[in-house]
Design brief:
Elements lengths: L1 H17 L2 E5 L5 E5 L2 E2 L2 E5 L4 H7 L3 E3 L5 H13 L3 E6 L11 H18 L5 E8 L9 H17 L4 E7 L2 H10 L5 E5 L7 H7 L6 E6 L20 H16 L4 E6 L32 H11 L9 E7 L9 E2 L5 E8 L7 E8 L21 E3 L3 E4 L5 E10 L5 E10 L1
Helix pairs in contact: 4-5, 8-9
Length: 423
């Protein structure tokens, strides 16, 4: 009887161990994520927009940047409906002075306690992300990371199921400080764009010895790309981004210390342009004849997540020129001068295409760290054509962007834009 009891106790112990989220060392080196005993590689999306499309494309997780209890409950309901896991964010300030403010810290302690108590047994949430890029604005300090560690320990004292982490930029100094002052974290999330090919080496050379997730990645950022002669950052086209996403995903999966990633942005936002990080078009913008259509990067992620060729692909915009000048030629025109913009666009399935043109002023109200930016002012009217060619003329000097969207009628809208200067 004693033997039976011991065996039963052992079964209970194993069940308790498996009914949680944990990280373990892999046999061949690196790390593995186990969710209720099952090895899981995170194929995640940044955001909660159209999780049904994400799941159908092969994703298994989504990431948020914060939220109160009601917002988290809505995310959980959506995630459950689509069999997705959640990395739930807990928003922290990027203002270094606030980490000396006990009233602010008490507010965060209360929030973390309430979240941990409410969701400690939830099986959709798998990890907490305590802060996102808080080291910006000179905030990579001992006191800030010690507070992150305190919040991690607070959550762990209540929530025995889920992992804790923080999210930083590609920054070895910050990673070293996290390793020193926030040792209770289960892993570190790192946001990385153009430097993705050197990320694994940076982590390996740092003081941090543990698993990590790439918590944001995508196209080459506006802070790391080429610019026109007048300083306008040069954005990749949808097709260039698709190729970039596929290549960078393969880089991410090659590091055994990486538990997976969250592609950015599974949704739409204004950041220098309405299309820079957006994997879907804008919604309900007056004058634009589309709402939440997929960019070519969604096609690319379906390809790498599933390992299969998608049944439907996006239009391919190979080039866009103004009077035969590409963006590298710094297209510049005089006030009132007429010029022709023409794009080379193809559709692999030979779907009938519609072309939508919009002109916006170059963004002048900008932010850092993903903070809010207003949509730049539109110039003239949105125009729709059956061919990818259109004449333009500007009566006011200034910096503009000409946007072209190619719609194939199957849910895709590829995009590119051409900065022009009017003197």
């Amino acid at each position: 009887m004693k033997c039976v009891l011991l065996i039963f106790a052992g079964i209970l112990s194993c069940a308790a161990l498996s009914a949680q989220v944990r990280i373990q060392s892999a046999l061949g080196g690196g790390y593995e994520l186990l969710i209720d005993g099952q090895k899981t590689y995170i194929k995640g999306v940044g955001g909660t927009f159209k999780l049904d499309v994400a799941a159908a494309s092969g994703a298994n997780a989504c990431r948020t940047w914060g939220g109160n209890i009601q917002q988290v409950e809505r995310t959980i309901a959506d995630a459950r409906a689509n069999n997705m896991y959640i990395m739930q964010g807990i928003g922290l300030t990027k203002d270094p002075k606030m980490y000396e403010d006990e009233a602010y810290k008490d507010q965060l302690r209360k929030q973390c306690r309430e979240l941990a108590e409410r969701f400690k047994d939830d099986r959709s949430i798998i990890m907490w992300g305590i802060g996102n890029e808080i080291e910006l604005n000179g905030n990579s300090t001992q006191v800030a990371w010690e507070f992150v560690n305190e919040l991690s320990e607070l959550i762990k004292s209540i929530d025995k199921r889920h992992l804790t982490s923080t999210v930083i930029t590609y920054n070895q100094r910050s990673l070293n400080l996290v390793a020193k002052y926030a040792p209770s974290l289960d892993f570190v999330g790192i946001n990385c764009y153009g430097g993705i090919t050197t990320l694994a080496n940076m982590v390996a050379k740092s003081d941090y010895k543990g698993a990590y997730l790439v918590t944001e990645w995508g196209p080459t950022g506006w802070w790391e790309c080429d610019k026109t002669a007048w300083g306008a950052p040069i954005e990749q086209s949808s097709e260039e981004k698709r190729l970039c996403y596929e290549e960078r995903y393969n880089v991410i999966t090659s590091d055994p210390a990486c538990l997976g990633s969250f592609v950015f942005l599974w949704g739409q936002k204004e950041e220098r342009t309405p299309t820079w990080f957006s994997m879907f078009t804008e919604q309900n913008v007056e004058g634009l004849p589309f709402s939440g259509l997929k960019a070519a990067t969604v096609e690319g992620m379906e390809r790498v997540w599933t390992g299969r060729e998608p049944s439907q692909t996006a239009p391919v915009i190979a080039s866009m020129k103004a009077d035969d000048m590409t963006v590298c030629d710094n297209p510049t025109f005089g006030k009132g001068k007429k010029f022709k913009v023409k794009a080379d666009v193809k559709d692999r399935e030979k779907d009938k295409m519609t072309f939508v043109w919009e002109v916006l002023k170059e963004a002048t109200i900008t932010a850092t760290g993903g903070a809010y930016e207003p949509r730049p002012d539109r110039v003239g009217q949105v125009r729709i054509t059956r061919k990818p060619v259109l004449d333009f003329r500007f009566d006011e000097p200034g910096a503009y962007r000409i946007y072209l969207y190619a719609l194939d009628g199957t849910g895709y809208a590829s995009a590119t834009n051409l900065p022009v200067l009017i003197k």
